[in-house]
Amino acid sequence: MHKILIVDDDMEILKLMKNALELKNYAVTVIQEVTLPVKLAEFQGYDLILLDIMLTNISGIELCKQLRNQIATPIIFISAKDTEDDILQGLANGGDDYIVKPFSLKQLVAKVEADLKREDRTKKAHGEFNTVRRDLGQITFYLEEKQVYIGSKAIPLTKREYAILELLSRDLTRVYTREEIYFNVYDESADALFRSISEYVYQIRNKFSMYGVDPIKTVRGMGYKWNDQ
């Protein structure tokens, strides 16, 4: 049984989401107020986290940034903030998907099911693909753990950032368009934007830049490929 955590300061919304997901046989835990300083243990052990952005004592964006240093659990932001920039900010700061309020409970359940199925497919694919470790020059992938290292240093990647890097590293000569990358790391009904792929590439490059490494090569007019340095 998949375990889901919902973080929202509106108790009525919490109850509605909890009931809808429990009817689908998910084990649901809710948090109405986040304890500060943030206790990592409260957010570990879940298969998916639904996170409101406008919380009472900490923004969901800030909470996600703190969690992303320690956990790779998929996080879906839920917010009434609905501009393109709002969505991109959420995705660039560790979110894996974004649901705009108000939403229907059917939409919520569909999003959750799609994210969990994709996560299960990814785990299965990693188990079947090649070996549990992939060495590419200075960069090492640990496929079962979904972690990337440079030497002994782990790079704190979000789930989407890891998915993009892992996809590019499968075929070092292939150029992937933004659309191909998008449909490999999102489900088809995702609210995310094609532009978010460029944002993820920017974030990945920032995280590797302190080591003097750029794992992604931009191919003008085409897309992105693994930078075989």
Task: Briefly summarize what is shown.
Residues 131-228 form the OmpR/PhoB-type domain. Helices cover 39% and strands 21% of the residues. The protein is an alpha/beta fold.
Can you describe what's shown?
By secondary structure, the chain is of the alpha/beta class. It has 2 domains: 3-122, Response regulator (Rossmann fold), CATH 3.40.50.2300; 130-226, Winged helix-like DNA-binding domain superfamily/Winged helix DNA-binding domain (Arc Repressor Mutant, subunit A, Orthogonal Bundle). 39% of the residues lie in helices and 21% in strands. It has helices at residues 11-22, 60-68, 84-92, 105-128, 159-170, 178-185, 195-209; strands at residues 3-7, 27-31, 48-52, 75-79, 97-100, 133-136, 139-142, 147-150, 153-155, 216-219, 223-226. The strands form 3 sheets. A 5-stranded parallel beta sheet has the order 2-1-3-4-5, with helices on both faces. It is globular and about 55 Å long.
